[in-house]
Amino acid sequence: MNIALKPFQKQRMLELRKVAAMAQMNWQHFGQKQIISFTAPTGAGKTIMMASFIEAMMCGDEEGMMAPMPETIFIWLSDAPELNEQSRQKMIKFCDRLVLNQLVTLDDSFRGDKLELGKIYFLNTQKLNKTSKMTNTGDGRDWTIWEVIENTIEEYGKHLVLIIDEAHRGAKTNQTTIMQKFVKGFEDKAENQKLQALPFIIGMSATPERFNSLAGASLSTLSKVVVTPKEVRDSGLLKDKIEIHFPEESVINKNIAVLQAAADEWKDKCLHWYNYTEKQHYQNVCPIFVVQVEPAVGNKISATDLDECIREIERRTGENFVEGEVVHAFGDAGTIPINGIDVPYCSPSSINDDRKIKVVLFKEALSTGWDCPRAEAMMSYRVAKDATYIAQLLGRMIRTPQRMRIEVDESLNYVHLYLPHFDENTVEEVVKKLTEEEGGALPTDVEAIRGGNKTSVVMTTKRPVAHVQPSNQAGSTQSTSSGSTVHQPVNQVQNTPGSESTKPQTTIPQQPATVVRDDGEHQSSHGGHQSSEPNDKQPEMELFVENGENPSQESQDPYEAVKDAINNAEILTYEVKTVAVNKNYVRSLFEMARLGDMTGMDEKFAAVDKVKDDIARLIHNFISELKAKGEYEALVDKALEFQLNTISVELYKSGSSYDVQQGPDLFSRTDAGLQRQYFNAEILLCGEGVGQRYADNYETDDYASMYDVILYVADSHQTDIRMDYAKEEFNRLADLYRPKSKNIPEKDRQRYNSLVTMGSTISKHLFHLPETINVDLDNEGETCTDHLFVNADGTATFNLKGWEPITLEEERKNPYFVCWLRNQDRKPWALCIPYDYGGETHRMFPDFLIIRKNEYGNYEYGLLEPHRDDKKDNLAKAKGLVKYVQACPNVDRVQMLRKMKTSSGEKMLRLEFTRLSVQEKVMKCVEESDFDKVFNAEGGYE
User: Cβ contacts of residue 74 below 8 Å, gap of 6+?
Assistant: First the structure.
């Protein structure tokens, strides 16, 4: 395929191949009819995975685990022509080893008596009713479609595979549907039609319960392959969240009000996608605005005022639509005039690939047979009772346009739905429908936005123009009209009317930040002791900030500068998985090397060549060793042997019967299969041309090099050596490329992270903050402006709990404080540190990332974890922090904090893990009590 499958898709396809191979053996050798239930949630890419399976079955797979079976016949059965056509188009687009004439749509033009070997036939149940031409003879057809399939089973049954798309739809228990005729077989004597149950069936569904019950009631053997919702969610194939918006009852003219809000969202998405793709050098996504209108009424094509709809979208967004930018999916309506432009019909399966389309009008036709990742916002005029149709549509809007999660702009991971005629109860009905039949265990969060009050928000570093720029000055507070406290940015500098200078300045003291021991002794953040005497002669540095001017890079967008500095600081974060994917390190090494060459992370652009040379050298060493031992010729002879099976027939003495037994195997030598063996060996070496590189480097002739490569791949010990080499070289490249990965496009950076993550439960990455983040925002709590990321109004609100408020208060008092980041648990962008506890590896997300600026103008970073002393995992987390500090020296402060009562009030006792003495003592602790003693002895105060 010319599209890379996600790791979970590869794993499940490998499982499906194994199950299918066993099923085929049971059918072909034992006559047991087989059914495989393939379950995958909405958005998992069932069609792509099944296309990969078909291509591997007909052409052989890349791993060399499946020999090609080019005579296989596939029937792809669905209940709608659009579903069939969409599946066929995907196979044409992505299956580069299949040819176009292998993909055949079955309709009444078919005239044969049976299906042909090596073809994939697309058939929909709507063409199989009793009045259909396909189920009757005539017009040049001598065979009905039922007879054609029956003839195919009789002639080519061992090569026939039926794939049922959306298999749950026809599995109703109270009636015999057309789909069930394929599963159970049928005979209609009145119509003189019959069909035996198909011998090998794969049923695809997001909700397989009904299909599994049907299969279990048949005479076939049922096997199951299941893709879990978590696998899909973690893959980046789906948007993170669906946001459903609906108005209050008091809103006047709900249609216009909600349409305007939806149009605003669509326009905003257009701008965000344009900025993202422009920066990342990708093709623009061109988001689509989907509008579901009301059914026809009287002579009108829709009860919705379509002219008003398009006119309002144009007015709200500033668009002036031309022909082709607005289309409809009203079936056979043809081109219709709307608001002064001709609006043509566009089939649902063609919408996503037509990049000119901006707005799609539809009624119900898009609920099935449609896949449009470009759909970013939807508004529905439908009434509340139509929850099923809306849920069906949403299930097809949640796919990500680039098949990956967007890290640099959180807003691009959302899809928005606007429902003017729904209330809280009916929205919940939509949510319920999403997880039922059509949603199929939809692996995404569904959040209703009630009363306009979000529980999550997209935040950015960019401040409104009215907000001031940062420096290193302790923050101030300001009372709001509601009485709550707003923490102003610590960098506040203001120009007041009548000021003499247009370049206000902030004086930054040069005293290093300190942690003070309880006895009054100062400790630097790096563990050195200093006098507690005040320094009255501190050098000063001026930081100039200009409002509305551009005197320096820092004054342009200081918070953006902080974010960029963090992303360039090579701070480590980790990904922790519960289960590691089995990894072919040779393949992963080639992929990592190719990524290095392609992105320039390998400065010589020769990483792939080096891997080929290294493996060629391993082959040469192995062959040289065999020849030195005198074993080479014998192994070549053995490699060229082929087996002749023997059947021994022995008559019983009575002469009336005989016994058939397996006789002794005969072997003969031939080089007829040499090319095939060499081809398989090359596949096991990842098909990268290693054999040819070996022949070129060591000047061996063609036949000799083929013998050598076959022998090398067949030796299990050499496989272990090759994997050990590949793992070591892969890790070397991963470490070499890690600091460079921050400068490559996001898609390549995600590919790098995916490769690193794939084979390990714990993988190391560079901490990288996106352009925007999604934050679980508390509606009540502290409102501040000094958080690194803020809302559109320039503020952020967090409900800090426990020891967090006093920790942040102390940090703000430090003269070097710049801003802070709430490191929210389990967010994709959050900084994660692994630690071992209870025999398992867990994830820790330190509460705060604190940014300071030292006397040299450099940013310093602190990870702070206020952690109660009664927690059972204190010591485990502390050891995790020690290991983190040792692996990541670029973080200046890493502290665990506890609240203590002192003579001057409550203060946070801080244990600084960057101190070598603390690291040594913590790692020697065995019990929690040992750690408490270290904390009390080594901790200090800010």
Answer: 54, 119, 120, 121, 161, 162, 163
Residue 711 contacts residue 623 (beta carbons within 8 Å)? yes
Q: Which residues contact 255 (CB under 8 A, 6 or more apart)?
A: 381, 420
AA identity, residue 857: G
Q: Cβ distance 775 to 574 under 8 Å?
A: no
Q: Report which DSSP code applies to 198.
A: P
CA torsion, ordered 689, 694, 695, 697, to nearest 10 deg: 120
CB 401 within 8 A of CB 374: yes
**Whether the Cβ atoms of residue 70 and residue 55 lie closer than 8 Å to each other:** no
Residue 451 in this model has a pLDDT that exceeds 80? no
Reference 868, options 900, 829, 825; nearest CA is 900
Architecture of the CATH domain 236-452: 3-Layer(aba) Sandwich (3.40)
Strand partners, 134: none
Q: Which residue has the higher pLDDT, 93 or 434?
A: 93
Q: Are 575 and 765 in contact (CB under 8 A)?
A: yes
Total-model pTM? 0.60
d(CA 863, CA 860): 10
Q: Where exactly does CATH 3.40.50.300 map onto the chain?
A: 7-228, 236-452
H or E element that contains 193: strand 193-195
Token pair for 194: 């019959």
Return the sign of the alpha-carbon dihedral for residues 588, 589, 591, 592: positive
Mean pLDDT of the chain: 80
What sign has the CA pseudo-torsion 928, 929, 930, 932? positive
Q: What is the rounded CA–CA span in Å between residue 545 and residue 563?
A: 18
Question: pLDDT of 735-788, one tens digit each?
Answer: 999 899 988 888 888 888 888 877 677 888 899 998 888 787 666 788 899 999
Do residues 729 and 615 lie in contact, with contact meaning Cβ atoms separated by under 8 Å? Answer: no
Contact in structure between 599 and 801 (CB atoms under 8 Å): no
Please provide the size of the chain in residues: 942
Take residue 862 and report the two structure tokens written for it: 């602190």
Classify 7-228 by CATH class: alpha beta
Residue that is written with structure tokens 């689509």 in the block: 288
DSSP state letters, 867-936: --TT-TTHHHHHHHHHHHHHH-TT-SEEEEEEEEEETTEEEEEEEETTSHHHHHHHHH--SHHHHHHHHH
**Helix, strand or coil, per DSSP, at residue 303:** coil
Q: Return d(Cα 807, Cα 522) in angstroms, integer.
A: 18
Q: What band does 598 get if pLDDT is binned at 50, 70 and 90?
A: very high
742, 750 contact by CB (below 8 A): no
DSSP codes joined into one string, 473-529: ----EEE-TTS-EEEPPTT-----TT-S-SS-EEEEE-PPPEEE-TTS-EEETTS-E
Rounded Cα distance, 152 and 925, in Å: 73
pLDDT of residue 892: 95
> Looking at the predicted structure, is the pLDDT value of residue 36 above 90?
yes
DSSP three-state, residue 703: helix
Res 823 pLDDT > 50 = yes
Could you give phi then psi for residue 274, rounded to 5 degrees? -65, -45
Secondary structure of 422-459 in the HEC alphabet? CCHHHHHHHHHHHCCCCCCCCCCEEEEECCCCCCEEEE
Residue 792: count other Cβ atoms within 10 Å of its Cβ.
12
Q: How far is CA 715 from the centre of its chain?
A: 37
